[in-house]
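Extended Data, record dTTP/UTP pyrophosphatase
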Amino acid sequence: MIKITLASGSPRRKELLASLGVDFEVRTKPIDESVGDAQPPHEAAQYLARLKAQAFEKDVQPHELIITADTVVIHDHKILGKPQNKAHAQQMLLALSGNTHEVVTGVCIYYQHKYEVFAETTQVVFKSLTTQEVNYYIEHYQPFDKAGAYGIQEWIGMVGIERIEGDYYNVVGLPLQKVYTRLKAIAPEIWG
């Protein structure tokens, strides 16, 4: 029987994976998540997802399937990470205001000594946000654990996003359709 491990501390990823109807446990290991300038922005999420999976390589249990993921926000060919403080969050959100950016989630599935690494990209279009809207969001939602300083499922997504092109769940943190398709191909017995 396959044991599924989600190697992510993200409560959003935990909720999303649970919604696929699979039993899993959460285990995390700290890794250095910095990516150098040599890493192309669109490849960073896959690189980090694989790095997170490699941290489990030495102590993976028999029949254990590891799922890792990393989400990056790319604006103006640069990665916007998690904001360091309120001023940094404000700077990020004002940069996204009135513009289109990309959200890339890289996923790695490690099973039976094989890595399956893939990514999903979603285009997100923000309306022009006022400084008051940005400050309200930061004060009430504290988006300091979110790439790009926002969560699409929160207030700012409801009032600020004009449209998206691509997978909504990808922006939340896990491209569910692709994850389901890959898991079903790798281990169809998961869904009996």
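Summary. The longest helix spans residues 41-54.
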